[in-house]
Design a protein that fits this description.
heterodimer; A: 291 residues; mainly alpha; Rossmann fold; four-stranded parallel beta sheet; 4 strands; 52% helix; B: 465 residues
Chain lengths: 291, 465
């Protein structure tokens, strides 16, 4: 190999090494405190999982699917609460992660509307031991963008966010016509048969509940209200029947008491912001009695 | 909506896996050992078979059938070209048609297909990775080599067809360009810097640009795109345009760099396609090896532009339509090809007049128009389900009614697209002269950035073809 070639590779390698060292040093010095921008809903879930992995264990944890993902943490009056619901994911993934931590929250709330998805083993592996989730290097471009975004939109306090959302209740429910989305969701639900996957997931949930309760946590199941049409759709009914047959005891369930006429599902499936806030208030009331 | 996003992944070894890194290192080490000098071609053939069969060994017999079958037709065509050359081409096209288009007629997941177990086995096989590429290699081999007197060795034929850097997604190097390169290779002749530059550039475009943009463009999938605001639909189409370029250019660059390590030169596949000022120019800059192949083996044999204006237009439409279908058995791919053919036909009588106008403004407008059309047509690639593509396209021209649109970070989109923009628009002289001394530092920075800022792993887009 010619000397010119060697010099080229030395310069290239040194540049790489210097940049990696600088980034590693910056990561060690400034930590991972900055909230990275989420470019997908999955990113949003990972932000919460990252926080769960490194912050003190909260009193209450919610696990679920994209339905529960819409119940933002800032809607809750309960401050020591984390929502580990995964958009596009299974409640079992969150429950596995919680169960694999050395310390547990006092209450774990498990959404059981969507139980047809497989556990995300990659996420379970990544977040199952506290402290292991942090990478050696942060992502420089995302960090720069995150800094800029945080500077541009300074994060509001929990009290500010809560009062802003409380103002939503003074507005009437949305009159957005969602029938196209509801029809599609019902059609999709009627073509799926979630029996096998739901049975597997329900069995795993039962095992995890046993393990968690032996370690002192209390686990409650809940079902988020869906639009009437979707409640009666095939796969939703099958999943509901399976989970209620396995967990018939009423004290296993967290009851959500809300006026259905106040709720809206703008995209046919997920609660809109105002409705999510109403549901959260009901959960807050129930949880405050248990803490 | 109640759905999860998924990324397509090849079961076997991908260029971005650590297994592939070890594989290349081992093969490279053995390849230049004096003991293997006489067996270099055979070693590369065995390595390529291992690469192809890794994770999907059931597809190796198909590859063997394609290579042995093609070799047999080459030998026979050397005796009687007029009979055996068309037979050989038909054999390869039949392979392609069976494996690529059977999905149009048969539900391959059905437990009982036709009831005949050997046919059921064939019908249930997945789409062989790279079949579109190695079938085109085979046809090139049949056409180019049967013009000669002597048949090449079986090992040479094998290497040409299955050389692992180009096996899965090209570049489609013509037999006449590749086979003459086969011969003893020496470690002292390896152009390390050249190889490193190609490989680093390729990985940087794939890991930093394409994989990160893929996260954003996942919102283009049905039904997620219905939640997008109108302006974001436009933005994502442009991001996908950058993504597909970065993804495929990245793959091609890695393939070229790897080939350099083993002493071979593959065809350059991209030449800054998004600065094209006409659609015909675009096809001399985008997937050059495919457009050259189509021109040589389809457009010219059809008569090219030598049989009158109407026939020229018809030939363009046929070539582009078949080019679209080559990518996949679907109406979206056909539409993509036909629309490109239509654009080529429309511009053909205007080209001379436009080229005669010496104005920067006109040239810039042409460039923008071509880029816009090419970009919008990528929707048919991103959404192979035709109704979904039309739904997305329609939504770009009507106000969004989505009650809860996702937030896209425009600054992040710009930062991830920047390498493509810089590559296309930065003056070449800047890099070739003024920044030449900074070149190793630039590549070093790219290496660091592609490691630090790599997006979530996704398969190369062209693996599905």
């Amino acid at each position: 190999m010619q000397m010119v070639t060697v010099q080229w590779f030395v310069k290239c390698g040194l540049t790489t090494a210097v940049l990696l060292l600088a980034c590693g040093f910056a990561t060690a010095r400034f930590g991972h405190g900055l909230q990275m921008p989420s470019t997908t809903t999955r990113d949003g879930s990972l932000i919460t999982l990252n926080r769960y992995a490194k912050e003190p264990i909260p009193d209450v944890v919610l696990v679920g699917s994209s339905l529960t993902f819409r119940l933002k943490e800032e809607y809750f009056a309960t401050t020591k609460l984390r929502n580990l619901a995964l958009a596009g994911g299974s409640p079992v993934t969150g429950l596995e992660i919680v169960a694999n931590q050395p310390r547990l929250p006092k209450i774990v709330l498990v959404e059981t509307n969507v139980l047809s998805r497989a556990t995300d083993n990659v996420l379970v592996e990544k977040y199952s031991w506290r402290g292991n989730a942090e990478p050696l290097f942060f992502r420089p471009v995302r960090t720069v963008v995150a800094s800029y975004e945080n500077w541009l939109h300074a994060p509001v306090t929990h009290a500010q966010a809560f009062s802003a959302h409380a103002r939503l209740l003074k507005q009437p429910p949305s009159d957005f016509d969602n029938h196209v989305y509801v029809d599609r969701a019902v059609q999709q639900s009627n073509t799926e048969d979630p029996t096998v996957a739901t049975q597997i997931n329900v069995q795993r949930i039962e095992q995890l509940i046993l393990a968690l309760e032996q370690r002192g946590a209390r686990v409650l199941l809940f079902q988020l209200p869906l639009s009437k049409e979707l409640e009666n759709a095939r796969s939703i009914k099958i999943a509901r029947d399976i989970v209620h047959a396995r967990f018939p005891e009423s004290d296993r369930w967290l009851t959500i008491n809300v006026s259905r006429s106040e709720l809206r599902w703008a995209d046919g499936v997920h609660l809109d912001e105002r409705s999510a806030f109403i549901v959260v208030q009901s959960i807050d009331r129930a949880v405050s009695l248990l803490l | 909506m109640l759905h999860s996003t998924s990324s397509q992944k090849r079961d076997g070894m991908t260029f971005t896996s650590w297994q592939f890194g070890i594989f290349v290192a081992v093969v490279f080490g053995l390849y230049y050992l004096p003991a293997f000098r006489a067996l270099q071609v055979q070693l590369l053939v065995v390595a390529s078979l291992f690469f192809y069969g890794y994770g999907q060994p059931e597809l190796l017999p198909l590859l063997a059938v394609a290579v042995f079958g093609t070799y047999l037709f080459v030998v026979l065509a050397l005796r009687n070209r007029s009979i055996w050359l068309p037979m050989g081409i038909a054999f390869n096209l039949a392979l392609l048609a069976f494996f690529k288009y059977k999905f149009l007629f048969v539900d391959t997941t059905s437990p009982a297909l036709v009831g005949e177990s050997p046919i059921d086995f064939l019908l249930s096989l997945p789409l062989p990775i790279g079949i579109s590429f190695f079938v085109f290699h085979n046809i090139s081999l049949l056409v180019d080599l049967t013009k000669q007197k002597d048949a090449p060795s079986l090992a040479s034929v094998f290497l040409y067809i299955i050389f692992f850097p180009q096996l899965v997604s090209g570049p489609i190097t013509r037999a006449g360009l590749f086979i003459p390169q086969i011969g003893p290779k020496f470690l002292a002749d390896v152009q390390y810097v050249d190889a490193a530059k190609w490989i680093l550039t390729g990985y940087f475009f794939k890991l930093y640009v394409a994989n990160n943009l893929n996260e954003m463009t996942s919102y283009m999938s049905f039904p997620l795109y219905e939640t997008l605001q109108t302006q974001d639909r436009w933005l994502l189409v442009f991001l996908y345009s950058y993504q597909i370029y970065a993804d495929f250019f990245g793959y091609s660059a890695i393939a070229i760099g790897l080939a350099v390590l083993f002493g071979y030169r593959l065809t350059i596949n991209f030449d800054l396609p998004y600065i094209s000022k006409s659609f015909s120019e675009f096809w001399t800059r985008w997937h050059i090896s495919l457009s050259s192949w189509l021109r040589t083996y389809l457009y010219i044999p059809l008569g090219g532009n030598q049989k009158g204006i109407t026939r020229t237009y018809l030939n363009l439409m046929i070539v582009m339509g078949l080019g679209g279908l080559w990518h996949g058995a679907g109406l979206s791919y056909l539409m993509w090809g036909v629309l490109h053919g239509f654009l080529l036909v429309i511009e053909r009588p205007l080209l001379g007049r436009l080229q005669s106008i010496d104005s920067t403004v006109v040239r810039t407008a042409q460039m923008c128009f071509v880029f816009l059309c090419v970009t919008v047509l990528w929707i048919f690639f991103k959404l192979p389900h035709f109704d979904h593509a039309i739904g997305y396209l329609t939504g770009m021209f009507v106000p969004s009614t989505s009650p809860n649109p996702p937030k896209l970070f425009y600054n992040l989109a710009l930062l991830y697209s920047l390498p493509v923009i810089i590559q296309h628009f930065a003056p070449r002289a800047l890099f070739e002269r003024r920044l030449r001394g900074a070149e190793p530092f630039l590549y070093g920075a790219m290496a660091a950035l592609m490691y630090l800022e790599a997006g979530p792993e996704t398969a190369f887009i062209y693996f599905q073809f």
